[in-house]
Write a structure and sequence with these properties.
Elements: H1 3-27, H2 33-59
Helix pairs in contact: 1-2
Length: about 60
């Protein structure tokens, strides 16, 4: 079992969940300051997790 590839997949899934949650918050926002802060925080975390997970999966070599 390749632990790096598993961790990369986990980060990718967490990033996708964060981006979906950001979209849900965006759909129900009223424009208050608290809503905008939530959008920015969850959006940035989602993007960071997604990109780091994809790059970790992509750069990890398969070992038999």
């Amino acid at each position: 079992m390749n632990l790096k590839r598993f961790f990369g997949g986990l980060l990718t899934v967490l990033g996708i969940v964060g981006l979906i949650y950001t979209a849900v918050i965006f759909a129900g926002t009223t424009g208050e300051t608290r809503d905008i802060k939530s959008l920015v925080i969850y959006g940035i975390l989602g993007i960071v997790f997604f990109m780091s997970g994809i790059s970790l999966v992509r750069t990890t070599k398969d070992e038999a």
